[in-house]
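Example record used in the benchmark description.
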Amino acid sequence: MKMKRFIFLIILSLVVLGFGREAATPQPGGPTPRRVIIFVWDGLRADDITPENMPNYFALARSGVVFSDHHAVY
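Model output (structure tokens):
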């Protein structure tokens, strides 16, 4: 009985993966996907990010989105 269930799960997984691959194929002429980069630093204080200390990161923070009320969960 366990062997039949195992074979069924393998076949079901292959079918699901087959449909997912077709859906993930990029369509010609469609919108280009957005690329997102998330920077996370634990222990980096907000007053450390200044144009003098981190000019590139400061410019990136000013042109992007910054979450000021985030909380690390341990």
